[in-house]
Write a structure and sequence with these properties.
The chain is α/β, with parallel strands linked by helices. The chain has a single domain, classed as Aminopeptidase. The chain has an eight-stranded mixed sheet, sandwiched between helices. It is globular and about 75 Å long.
Length: 356
């Protein structure tokens, strides 16, 4: 091909970088829009799938507390005042208080009609203690449901919400189910050392317990970790979330959350469905991979490590409570009416799961 001097050589199509006319700009815009939709849409669809739960969360005003809920309210308040008030800090830095808390829990199990057992571990073989009470099952006694809560607090704090509330709920759920004659076996376990410096290490009480269960070939069909259950706030904007998920959940921190990993999604959905069927209290759920912030927040993580299905039930802790892991996390920051409703509702959930 020959060109005259001064003529501009045409640019081959393969060398064009920018669109050359209006029509090509329009096509490029459509392509970019499609790419952006896919790029943003896939994560959003994934988050939507993780957050989908059966049933409808309660909306509107709560009914008055029932007689049962009023009684539970009085008892959980007494437990929290003992654990976070009289005993106070329950960290590994003050082993005496940690053991005082485990003694109190064992006494409460005994008062409810159970035989309490200690599982001891640590450098001296007996430095730390898990506390266990068991309700034997009937026709399906080999299927075990574990209900657990850690009783330690962060060093320097009294941990009224995190996690005296979880322990109080554990005690009262055990009390309420004592005469329920479940088909499966239910174990109620208070764990030591969930908080730093032991968090997500082999020295967590729940890790020690779950590892022994696996070594014994225990058939644990479900584990519920009761984690920070007492803080609720109906103010708009009071609830926070990881990125993406904030578009899918309410902005008010007035609900209880059911949190599972991907392996535990069936259990998570079944549990929240039963809660919604029986309890007039707002609830939200998620079953997501463990890399999502907050999903592995508590003792269910230890059971996941052993291949068991587990669900954390929580007020979402650091995503809601401004007093989280601070000295201001005191007894008077607990919302006892809401906490009592949740505790009674969880007893119904656990009974259903234990019955298969």
């Amino acid at each position: 091909m020959r060109y005259e001097r001064g003529a501009v050589s045409p640019v081959p199509n393969s060398m064009k970088i920018l669109p050359q006319d209006r029509r090509e700009w329009k096509k490029a815009g459509l392509r970019m829009g499609a790419f952006t939709s896919v790029f943003l849409g896939i994560p959003f669809m994934f988050a939507s799938w993780c957050s989908w739960m059966p049933g409808e969360s309660h909306r509107g005003a709560a009914p008055p507390l029932t007689e049962e809920e009023e009684a539970v309210k009085a008892r959980v308040q007494a437990h929290i005042e003992e654990l976070a008030g009289r005993i106070g800090e329950r960290s590994s830095a003050v082993v005496g208080s940690l053991n005082a808390a485990s003694d109190y829990i064992a006494a409460q199990f005994a008062d409810a009609g159970y035989e309490a057992r200690f599982q001891e571990y640590g450098p001296a073989k007996s430095l730390y203690r898990n506390v266990e009470a068991e309700l034997a099952g009937g026709a399906r006694s080999g299927e075990i449901v574990v209900v657990g809560a850690h009783y330690d607090s962060v060093a320097g704090t009294i941990g009224a919400d995190d996690n005296a509330t979880g322990v109080a709920a554990l005690i009262e759920i055990a009390r309420s189910l004592r005469d329920s004659a479940p088909a499966g076996t239910i174990r109620f376990v208070a764990f030591a050392n969930e908080e730093p410096p032991f968090f997500q290490t082999e020295n967590m009480g729940s890790f020690q317990y779950a590892a022994r269960c696996r070594a014994n070939n225990d058939n644990i069909v479900a584990m519920f970790a009761l984690e920070s259950l007492g803080y609720y706030d109906s103010t708009p904007g009071s609830q926070k979330y990881p990125a993406l998920f904030r578009l899918l959940y309410p902005s008010r921190g007035d609900f209880v959350g059911f949190v599972g990993n991907w392996h535990s999604r069936r259990l998570t959905r079944r549990a929240i469905q039963r809660f919604r069927e029986t309890t007039p209290f707002p609830s939200e759920g998620i079953a997501a991979p463990e890399f999502v912030p907050g999903v592995g927040l508590s003792d269910q993580w230890s059971f996941w490590r052993q291949g068991y299905s587990g669900v954390m039930v929580t007020d979402t802790a650091m995503f809601r409570n401004p007093n989280y892991h601070q000295s201001a996390e005191t007894v008077d920051s607990v919302c006892f009416d809401s906490f009592a409703r949740v505790t009674v509702g969880l007893a119904r959930v656990i009974q259903t799961i234990a019955n298969g």
